[in-house]
Structure formats: structure tokens, C-alpha cells
Design goal:
Elements (H helix, E strand, L loop, with lengths): L1 E7 L6 H11 L3 E5 L7 H5 L2 E8 L2 E6 L9 H5 L5 E5 L8 E4 L9 H5 L5 E6 L2 E7 L4 E7 L8 H16 L4 E5 L6 H7 L4 E6 L3 H17 L2 E7 L5 H13 L3 E6 L4 H7 L4 H4 L3 H17 L1
Parallel strand pairs: 1-10, 1-11, 2-9, 2-10, 11-12, 12-13
Antiparallel strand pairs: 3-8, 4-7, 5-6, 8-9
Length: 296
């Protein structure tokens, strides 16, 4: 099984639209949406959820009001402002404390220093992950809860489950919609992949972000290709990206012109390939063929 990961230096470059287009062209594959901070691949794939599981990325403190003696040790020890007064627990205890689950960083200090052991350390439910079926094949994806942070643990889980399904169903390709940027979620998205496609755009920020992403994939020794989306909005920048990529030994395999079909396809909950058979679709198909050749 080969693994293709599509990433970008920042959000909004068209990464997910291109990933969805590849899904409509591929055969015998599993799809994974690892952009869990801003998951939107499901908007096009319209998946039918077959399995739903809670995701815990860490632990949080919970004060048992009936056992709290209101001493304030936890309040004094907390460096995140997560503990506050909560009023009387009963007739004999005139003040207790409570933990704000959004502010709690799960450091465990309050648990360790509570003199009466009135604080529990429970697994926090940070979101859900899903195994679904789409019109093209199986898909593994997730949704983080409000104000929840993605440490990369959820991304790793999504990739692991997608690989398991691919092995069980004897699929020969795993297509991953990776996280944007260069942080922990991106590292979790690309580690061990066979090929990374970086989708960028012809702007100064696009060039800067592309350079950072290419440094990251180079450090991991992963073969990298580049796609320039909206390539015709700034031909000078497009040429500069090509030259700089070539100087670093990275090939630009696609130059996709700006086309409203991308947006219209999303509105119709369809991939670009399903929506139009014009020149723009042919360019994406050509790029996909080159990727399959590069994967061997």
C-alpha cells in the first residue's frame, strides 16, 4: 500500500478540493481527513457514518464538591486560572472550588497537592472520530470539540485506522488530506508517508510557507511534489516558485488556473471532476497520473 499526503503551508490554498478530486479518480483506496482542526472534506464526500468513537487527547481535573473543604490550595497552585470559587457545598462548608474545563491544561498539580484527595483526574473528551463510507470508498475523519486543541494524537489515530482498513480490505492506496502549516499535526500527517504533495499559491506568503513545508518534508526524507493553485493570478510569482522548487530538486507537477468551478463544485457537494469535464479537470487528472507514476 502507498500513502499520498496532500498538505499546504496555510489554509485556503485549495488543498482539500484537490484531495477530493483525487478521491474521485482513485481506485482501491481509503481516504483520511487529518485536517481535524478545520475538517471540511466531509462537506464534499457526504459520508455515511458507520462507526463513531469519542477521542480523548488528555486529562482534566474535576473537583468533587461534596469532598472539597474549601481550603484554597488548588486555587493558589493553579497557574492557568482554571479554578474558581463555586459557593457552599453544604451547611458546614461555606465555600468550595470548581475547575473550568476550557482553562484546565491537565497539569495534575491540583490533584497532587489537594490535602483531602477531593480532585479527580479524568480523561477529557476532546472530540469524536468516525469511520464512514462515501460514494468513492471508505473514509476516516474526525471532529474536534469547541476550543479543543489538536496535539497530533488525533491525526495519528486517524491515519492508523485508515491504514488498518486499507490492509483489511486490501486497498493499494491511502489518500490523506493533511493539516496545513508545519506544526505537530502536520508532522503527524506526513511521518512515514510515501509521497507528499504541497499545494501552494503564487503569493509572497505562499512562497514563504512553501519553503517552510519543503524544509520539513526534506528533514523527514519524504519525496515531495508541488502544485501551484490559482497559478494565473500572478505569473511572475508562479515562475519564481517553479525556479526555487527546481533549485531544491522538487518538481512542480501542476499549475492549476483560477476557476470558479472549484467553488461551484463545493456548493453542489461534488468534486471538481464530478462537476466539470473541462480544461481544469483535465489538468487535475494529468497531475494525478503523474502522482501515481511517482508513487510507483
Amino acid at each position: 500500500m502507498k500513502e499520498l499526503v496532500v498538505i499546504s503551508g496555510k489554509g485556503g490554498t485549495g488543498k482539500t478540493s484537490i484531495t477530493a478530486a483525487f478521491a474521485s479518480l482513485a481506485q482501491d483506496f481509503v481516504l483520511a481527513d487529518c485536517d481535524v482542526d478545520a475538517a471540511d472534506l466531509h462537506l464534499v464526500m457526504n459520508p455515511k457514518i458507520n462507526n463513531k468513537q469519542d477521542f480523548s487527547g488528555g486529562r482534566q481535573a474535576v473537583i468533587k464538591a461534596g469532598e472539597c473543604i474549601g481550603c484554597g490550595v488548588c486555587f493558589d497552585m493553579c497557574r492557568f486560572g482554571a479554578i474558581s470559587l463555586n459557593g457552599p457545598a453544604n451547611e458546614t462548608i461555606n465555600k468550595t472550588y470548581t475547575v473550568d474545563p476550557v482553562s484546565c491544561e491537565g497539569c495534575n498539580v491540583c490533584v497532587e497537592f489537594c490535602p483531602v484527595g477531593a480532585i479527580e483526574f479524568k480523561d477529557a473528551i476532546n472530540g469524536q472520530w468516525f469511520i464512514s463510507e462515501t460514494r468513492f470508498g471508505p473514509m476516516v475523519h474526525a471532529k474536534l470539540g469547541i476550543a479543543q486543541e489538536n496535539s497530533g494524537k488525533l491525526v495519528t489515530l486517524i491515519r492508523k485506522e485508515a491504514k488498518r482498513i486499507a490492509e483489511e480490505q486490501i486497498k493499494n492506496l491511502l489518500i490523506v488530506d493533511g493539516s496545513p502549516g508545519i506544526g505537530c499535526p502536520v508532522i503527524a500527517s506526513i511521518a512515514g508517508a510515501d509521497l507528499v504533495l504541497v499545494v501552494t499559491e503564487p503569493t509572497l506568503s505562499g512562497i514563504h510557507d512553501l519553503d517552510r513545508v519543503m524544509q520539513l518534508t526534506s528533514n523527514f526524507g519524504i519525496k515531495t511534489l508541488v502544485c501551484i493553485n490559482k497559478a494565473d493570478i500572478n505569473l511572475e510569482m508562479t515562475e519564481r516558485i517553479e525556479e526555487e522548487s527546481q533549485a531544491k530538486g522538487t518538481k512542480v507537477i501542476g499549475k492549476i488556473p483560477y476557476d470558479e468551478s472549484f467553488t461551484k463544485a463545493q456548493i453542489m457537494r461534488a468534486t471538481l471532476i464530478e462537476y466539470t469535464g473541462g480544461e481544469i479537470a483535465e489538468k487535475v487528472k494529468s497531475m494525478y497520473r503523474e502522482i501515481i507514476y511517482a508513487l510507483g
